[in-house]
Amino acid sequence: MQNLSQVLASSSVADSLQTVLIQTTDTCVAISDVLKQGSLAGILGMAGNENVQGEEQKKLDVISNDMLKDALLACPAVRAIASEEEEDIVPANTNGEYLIAFDPLDGSSNIDINAMVGTIFSIYRQIGDNPAEEKDFLIPGKEQVAAGYVLYGPSSMLVLTTGDGVNMFTLDPKTNTFLLTEKGVSIQPETQEFAINMSNQRFWSDSIQNYVDDLVKGKEGRRNKDFNMRWVAAMVGDVHRILCRGGVFLYPWDKKDPSKPGKLRLMYEANPMAMLLEQAGGKAHTHTDRILDIQPSAIHQRVAVILGAANEVDKCLSY
Ligand SMILES: O=P(O)(O)OC[C@H]1O[C@](O)(COP(=O)(O)O)[C@@H](O)[C@@H]1O
Ligand SMILES: [Mg+2]
Ligand SMILES: [Mg+2]
Fold this sequence. Notes:
Blueprint: H1 4-9, H2 15-37, E1 46-50, E2 56-58, H3 59-73, E3 78-83, E4 90-91, E5 98-106, E6 117-125, H4 134-137, E7 146-152, E8 156-161, E9 166-172, E10 177-182, E11 193-195, H5 206-217, E12 228-229, H6 235-245, E13 248-251, E14 264-265, H7 266-279, E15 283-285, E16 302-303, E17 305-308, H8 310-318
Parallel strand pairs: 3-5, 11-12, 11-13
Antiparallel strand pairs: 1-2, 3-4, 5-6, 6-7, 7-8, 8-9, 9-10, 13-17, 14-16, 15-17
Helix pairs in contact: 2-3
Bound molecules: 1,6-di-O-phosphono-beta-D-fructofuranose (FBP) and ligand 2 (2 copies).
């Protein structure tokens, strides 16, 4: 079985991007080690601070952010980073070519129940001799040169695209290397499985209410087939399931806080997942736009997300 370095070395991925990918994923291996220790290392629970989005940080949000930040700032090919847990972008090396946006720990509410979490990353190429600024990151997702996530589950997995399909790697605990276990992942256009947080139902728009109503009615409604529902409460886990066996995932706009266009963040949740989904033959939209076409206006911008099996995303948008 080929490991990640061998797969990258035999691809057309630029050497400089390979070093960034290796640095990022090596750090994820270290994060997975920390996660494995759980309570034994005293790393569960709250950190006692809020992040820039006003969300309470868990200790592991802070630990994984610091690990990725330290590793990437030390990588000469990195120009700057942006993180869910950092208010502003953090410039690295003016000669670096890559901008990396990441969610260091996705699914924070799962940490203390020993359930699935992950790290999500999105990489852009940007050269110039000025110190990096926030506006450098405000590039539509279709310009990403690589995107992926590491899922920390019963086994740790890396799912990666460099714009030429999607590959899955499984972490070999004996050698601490990611081995290629699934090449050219593809998602079937039809599905009978959906993922949405049903507790928000009364806050959804009429169109999402009608769409989900029809899913729930199954064979007795106008869809003429039964649907199953799953909710991991970590986008990384829900997207992973869709890449493995299909499905559709929604975190739509809702009127709990109508000023927010959605819950999930464009730069380090929606964009990298949208690139993976499209590379696997699926679709990723807001209520109105293809996610990868959105011109970002801020690094912590939020968006509504409807992604997964192509025909099911189209069906949802038709409501
Ligand atoms: O609390 P809810 O509504 O189940 O939301 C779960 C969603 O929130 C998130 O956990 C947000 O990510 P963070 O944990 O990185 O803030 C998504 O991964 C997930 O899909
Ligand atoms: Mg997240
Ligand atoms: Mg997070």
